[in-house]
Structures are given as structure tokens and as C-alpha cells.
User: Fold these one by one.
Assistant:
Number 1:
Amino acid sequence: MRISPLPPLPCLVAFEAAMRQGSFTRAAAELHLTQSAISRQVAQLERFLGKKLFVREPRALRLTVSGQRYAEQVQRLLVGCAEATEEVMKRKGPTELTVACSSGVAVLWLTPRLARFRAAHPDYHLRLIVNDSLASLSDTEFDIGMYYLRGGPPPGLSARRLYDEEVFPVCAPHYLNGRRLRPADLPGETLLMLEDGQRQWMSWQTWLAHNGVPDARSANAMVANQYPILLQLAMEGQGIALAWRHMIDACLREGLLVRACDAAASLGGGYYALWPQDRVETASARAFRNWLVRQSAAEG
């Protein structure tokens, strides 16, 4: 059943502050608004109610009889709402942390480094959400995320760039037996591709066009919808995959993969730390964000 009638919440907040302060000016200072904004919100509430709430005197506000009765109820309800909100926020606790990232970031970057963060913050309770589509995530589902972006962050999220994009082909060491291919040679190989839905990432066609091979078609492509699967196929010598620097560094260091070509490309994208703009930041979220920034700075 719909709850009705309900006045606009900002009007109630302005009315309660003006009642308590006895002044539109002091209420405006408390709420970080202008005096005219408070006056307009109270007037809007009076029109909604069809009742005068204040008698405006030269140097003070005085509640009408209707205003006095309404003020008691509104203040009680707003205090109750604030207490309920605080209780819900406390249940989460400052040590709980939900991190969201794509499967590639989770497998290739985060999990090899996560032990360092946990060692520095053993009391934090970590929950990891792996979702390749940032657009399908609500900003209420996570405290901080790490995603590849091309362009600015989605509405409602703040962002800090961690790594610039650099994309190059990789394969198993035995696949080419030490040879390096030219970009023009690559369409003749088995190319491991992300399916069409993963358009945020650079495609093979785009990479080849950036390196002077337009309108190329692979003679024998393999397609998957998750990036870690493509890398596993590359490690097993099944073909050549595109790799993103920083995500792939550990695989190169350990000799699981090697560069198949000296050429690289970029669309100007990068990996970002992301967090909700309007959320009160917890100590755990702030610590994790600072840790991401330090990690990226140390790795260049």
C-alpha cells in the first residue's frame, strides 16, 4: 500500500532546522544552503500542507499552532529515521569491505597481491564480487572496485586512474619457439578472441588496424566470453591472445607467456579504482583505495 501524502524530504529537513534554530539564516548555515533556499523549501512545505507553519517576524521566526504540532511529529520522525540509518550503517561495520572487479583483474592482478593487503589489515573482513560488466553493478553493492575504463567513470562513481593501457599479443613460449611475428603475420595464426559483447576491451581487429593491418580476418579464431579462459588457452599453446600490460606482468615474469610481437597499441583507456560518490567512506574502503594507489605507483 502506497504511503501518502508525503511531502518532499528536503522540505521537512529545512523546516526542522528552521524550527530548532528559530531563523532561516542559522538553519541555512547548519545545512550548508543559502537563506533563500531554506525559505523556499519551507514555503513549498506550507503550500503542500495548506497551512502556515511560521509567523515571520523582523528578527525571528515563531511557530503557528499548526506549526508547533507538526514540528513535534516531524522532529520525532526525522530523529527516528537518523537512528535507523545509523543502525544499518553500524551493522556493516568499519572493518567490512566489498571489492568488485572483472574476472581478469581478479585472477591476474588482485589475487596474487591480496595477501599483502590482508597482512597489513588482518582485522578487515573482505568480500570479493567478480563481475565483468561494471554497468550491471549497482553502486550499493560494493565499496570500491577496480575496472578497465575507456573514458570517464559511470554516473555516481568517483575514479582514480591506476594504470595506462598498453596492449600486445602473447602466447606460450613453445608456440612460436622464440620467434617474434610482425603484425601482418598474425591473421594467419590462431587468434584467441573475446566475444563481441566485450566491446569495452580492445578487439583483435582494432589492434591490427592500429598496427597497419586493416580489415584483417583470422583464418582460425577461437572465441570465449571470459578473459582468463583465453589466457589459459594461450598458456597451453592453443593460440595467441591480446594482453594488457600490468595485468599480464606476472605471467611474463614466470615464463608462462611471452610476447608474440613487438608491436603494441592503446585506445587511451586504463585501469581505475572506483567508489560510490555519495557513500560515507569507511576506514576499510579508504585503506583499500590507498593501497591500490600505492601498488600502481610502485609498479609504474
Note: The mean pLDDT is 90.
Number 2:
Amino acid sequence: MKATPLQQRRLADDIIDRIETLILEGSLRPGERLPAERTLAEQFGVSRPSVREALQKLIARGLLTSRHGGGTFVSETLGSSFRDPMNDLLERNPEAQRDLIEFRHTLEGSCAYYAALRATEPDRERLSAAFERVQDCYLRKGRVSRAEEGAADAHFHLAIAEASHNAVLLHTIRSLFDLLERNVVTNIGGMIPLGSDIRDALLDQHRTLYRAIMDRRAEDARQIACAHLDYVQEVLAETRDEAQRVARAQRRQATA
């Protein structure tokens, strides 16, 4: 048998692999600017022409974009499956809001499980900072906006997804991030009028989830994440039912 000669890989292909890995693992995010060619060449230990060739190929693939005089960026369209106007459509539909919570149930349970197993020290530091932000918002009660609280909550769940070290889970969460954040804000708006007991319960659930991940109790983390979303769904359902009962009683009174 005559062996086929092996082809030597070009340096540009190795650079492409490195950059693609950074994008896939979430170290380079949509819209993020890459370092200058000179800096990349120094970091990779290669020539600038090799870096330039790699960047051009990645631009051709749609992973990067180039702005004249502004540098090279990770494409902002990556993971954009659920961008406006789909966000608006889903946000206005009560059934779609319920569907989103059910979807989060599956997705975030898995993220919590793998985060507990795989979180590195930098992941744990980011998760701690994200939880502190959530806790601060809950403890400030009437002195924090729904938008700020929703953003803190959503970033906490994103930090868990990043700590899962599962590229598919992470990029699914990122593609849904705007929708997730708005869903959290909507949920908070529906639960705030119910009183401090609800807020205390939600904070306790976040704290319990955080500790399970930090203690590397993977199965507990999955169950706690799912139980948290079950609780949110139950409270919102009861809120909607109560609103319907009040409206029905008011209609009867008006026609009496």
C-alpha cells in the first residue's frame, strides 16, 4: 500500500482553531472586539500575515466582522435566534410566557447540574459576584427597579450557564438572554404585589441554589433550580387566577 503524504497544516489554520474555540466556549462573545493583529501575533507566537489570513477566513465564514478603521469583532448575529421582534411577540403572549418557564425548567436544571460538577475557581468567583448582586437587589426591596432586579437575576443564571462548560447550553442561554431577562422582569412584576414573603422565598431559593453549586452537589443543584421555577410558575398562576376572580366579581357587581 502506498501511503498518502501528510499535508502540513498552515499556521493560519491553527489560529482559526484557537479563535473558534474561544468563541465556542464563550470566552469571546458576540460583538466583542478582538485584539489588534500585532497583539494577536504576539499572543499566538506567529507572524502578522498568518493572523491576517486567519481573520479573513473567519470573516468569510461569518464568525467575525471587520469595521473599517474600527477593528475586528465577533459577529453580533451569532446565537441570535430569539431577537426582536420575536421577543416582543413572545412577551405579549401569556401562554408563551408559560412555555418559556417550562423551557427554562429543563435548560437551567441541566446548567445547574453541570456547573456544580465543572465550575472552575474563576467561574466560582463570577458566580459569587452575580449572587451578591441578586442578594443586594432583593434586600433593597422598594429602592431597586424591576429592570435592575431582572438584570441581576438573569446574569446570575447566565453565570451558572457559563460555569456548566457545556457550549450548547451556554449559547442557548445567551441566544435567549434578552428574552430571559424580560421574562424575569415580567415575573417580578407579577409577584412583587404579593408581599415580602414571596421575595424572601425567592431570595432563599437563589441562595440555596448558589450554595448547592458552590458545594458541588450536582443533583441537589438540578432539583433546586427546577423547584425554583416550579414555585415561580405556581405563584404566577395563582396571581392570574386571583386577577380573573376579582375581574369576574367586579363585572357581577356592575350588572347587579
Note: Residues 113 and 219 are 6 Å apart (CA to CA).
Number 3:
Amino acid sequence: MVDLIVCGLGPAGRAVAHRALARGLSVIAIDPRPERPWQATYAVWRDELPAWVDPSVVATVSRPRARALGEHRIERDYGVLDTAALHTCLTLEGARVLADRVLAVDHAAGTVRTAAGAVLAAARVVDARGLGRAPGRAEQTAYGVVTALGDLARVGGPLFMDWHADNGAATDDPPSFLYAVPLDGERALLEETCLAGRPALGLDVLRDRLHTRLRARGIALSGAEPVERVRFPVEGGRPGGDRFGAAGALTHPATGYSVAAALAAAGAAAEGAPLWPPRARAVLALRRAGLRTLLALPPRDLPAFFDAFFALPVDRQRAYLSGRDDLAGTAAAMSALFARLPARLRRHVVTAVGPGLRAGR
């Protein structure tokens, strides 16, 4: 019997397996395609990365802007990750790596059954297979193109969010924003994003909006540009129970970010330490209230909401975006945001947030 079985080798699962090996534990890691390259673009706030992560995994660093009603410089270093370097950094040397599909996990018994018919046992099993789509589960969607780095300046980037209304959407249509970041010294990602929707905007709608927006800013696409398509749930994960990554509720419900949180928590997960003390569970409840607010706001009011958020001091922004167990900071950020909102938005916030918090969700 080994010390640990890790199911799923995306960034979250691979990080847990890597940190377990660094602690001298015996590890079996299972994934249908364990060496499959990660195709998605992952980004982090640099101050979120744990010290053990090799700095070389950060491909580019910028201090992006957010555009809503006005324009805001975000005073935090924002890094786009080199996914190949991250994959290499999270070495699995010493692990038994199986190219197989997990059919069933019994956490109580410490067993895993695979499609190849194997039944494997360990002192502990961590399930990091991600979170599947489900009807009624809010999702984030995005459609992006990889273009020449010079196009980043043409759209006014780097941009964490740009809610300007030049994407062809009507005022009362479900909203989307432009995300624009450098990928390396030659390429940029320009992406139209639906932050959260139930249902989220379709990729065809986002594609058309992106093309409209880029034409409005003087960028003509050839049609040969590499494309990035994004669709994943931002709700549905459950904390605890040796679930990790998106399945273990490490996805920020109101932003969709999860990789930095998984890297930061990987060591504790590898050791079997509690990841969800009461403060962290309370922060999760507040963040889920934030998601309900985003889903409830009228589309035309999203720019005003984010204008108020990015006008907050950077420590308040950091607490809400990155403080997974910073209950005082998260509550202070949400209170400060509420105080900045126009009265009509406050009413929507109270309606969306109140019942969920009273029910303890």
C-alpha cells in the first residue's frame, strides 16, 4: 500500500503529487493522459505563488488595467504562466504514474478502481479530477485569439477587464468583457469573456463579439490565428473530503481563478492537513454571495459594479481576490464595495446576497 493516490493530473493534482513526493511519500498518480500538455492560459497574481514554485514558470508580468466606467491601474504584479514550464516544475519523479481512467473512489477504504480493472489502495486518496458541467451550474466561458504582441497596444492592453461597449452587444444583453495579456515576447491573447452566467454565453456569441470589438479597434484578423476556447463551472465544488482543485471548491466562484490557490494549498493537501478551517469556509460563503450578486445584477449595471470594485485600495482588492482564509479582509472589501455602489445596485446586492448567507450557503 502506498501513502497517497492522486486522481487527475491537471495543475492541481500534479501539484499535490509533486509536493507529496517532495515530502518523501510514496505516490500513485492516475490520469488518462498523464503527459498531455495543458492548453489553457493560466494566470496568477504573483504574490499568490508559494515560495517553492520556480519563478521561471511565470512567462510574463504586467500591471494590467481595468476599464469599466473609468480606467483603473491595478497595483499588483500579474503573471501569465508558461504552462510547459509549470508542468516541468511539477516533476513526478519517483511516482508510479498510470495512464488510466478512474471509475470509482472510496475515500473511507482508501481504494481506487480504474477502467483497466485495477483496484489500488493507499493510506489516502486525493481526487483532483476537476468539476464536470451540470444543468443549472454557473459557468465561465471565453473565446480568444492569439495574435502578434503589437496588437496588445492597439486594444489598450494589458487589460484585466475591459467592459467598454464596442463589442456589438445591446445594453441589456448578457455582458462580456475583453481580456488582453502578453503571452511571451512575441504573442498576445485577446479574449472575450463571460465572467459567469447561468447559462453562460455561447462561444459563437463570444467569437462574434470579439471580432466586432477588434475591428472597432483597428485589428483585422486573418482567420489563421490560434484560438482558445474556455468553458468551465464556477460553482459546484465541495470543500473537504480529500477533494482538491476545482472539485474541492478551490475555484474562486466570482472570478474563476483556481491555479494559484491550488499551488498554495498543495503542500497541506499532500500532508492531509485541513484545508477548510472555519475562516476559509466563511470566506467561501462570502465569495459565493459575490457570484450570486454578479448573476443577479442587470447587465447594464456590471460596469458600475466593477468600477466601484477597482476603485478600492489594492489591499481590499487583494483580500477579496486572493485571501482564501482572510475573513476579516474579505468582509471589509465587500463592505467597502457596497458603500461605493449606487443605491439601485445596493438593492440588487441585498436581494442576491441576504437569503444565501442566512441559509449558510
Note: The two ends are 38 Å apart (CA to CA).
